What does this fold into?
Amino acid sequence: MTDTVSVLLRPEASADPDPRPERYFEPNASDATQVVKRPLSAWELIFDNGAVRKGLILVALALIWEVYARQLNNDLLFPTFTATLQALYEGVVSGGLLVKAWASIRVLLLGFGIGIGLAMLLTVLAITTRIGNDFLETLTAMFNPLPAIALLPLALIWFGLGEGSLLFVLAHSVLWAVALNTHSGFQAVSPTLRMVGRNYGLRGLSYVSRILIPAALGSILSGLKIGWAFAWRTLIAAELVFGVSSGGGGLGWFIYENKNYLNIANVFAGLLLVILIGLFAENVIFRTLERLTIRRWGMHS
It folds into this structure.
């Protein structure tokens, strides 16, 4: 019995395994020259640029357009890309197309400004009062799904055959998209930031302009982009039918007139200019605004 107990008490008979021996590794000579990030090749640097990738996509689409139109061989149905570029060049050089484009942009900016002003007014009212919040939610649910072009016949009765009708439908197309996104952005502002503003004594418009608008700028810019797209397509659709003042107008009227004269290349040139203006607004104007505000302030997700 005594021998058994002594055996159990010996360290060699303990249940714990032997500690793992320490192991040391000498640094590998190849690790000293290994780089954490592999430098990109010239092709990878070029392809890493978003503008280059989008440019390649546009070039591919232009090639598909050119090949398909040449195979179809019917200029009255689908002119080639080169013929459209030629018509666009002649329209720009003669100045006629630029005048039409400016007529559309001028009306668009007026309607866009009116829509943004009304949207800001409704949103401030909604964020500062409970009845204003209910008012905005009810109107947004009613009118946001309503296409602006559907109101054009009524606008023609109310405001006549001129810019007033176009401004009405443009303001309608911008108002609800901007108001909805701005209101959602205001509601998403963190309670901590709200408390900071109130602790500094900010109330009313100063609270909205110095706390809510900077914090919700991402949502506001999204609303502006959506409102711009709605307004642009609404304006072109309205001008296609009525022009600005019964016989004169912008790009929509230019497209409609050339369709009647079967100048299909000019029709495509007008459509191409509409697309180019849309690309410029999206990729230059709004992208610059985002870079100067949201990305510069570190507010992008």
Remarks:
- The two ends are 74 Å apart (CA to CA).
- The longest helix spans residues 96-128.
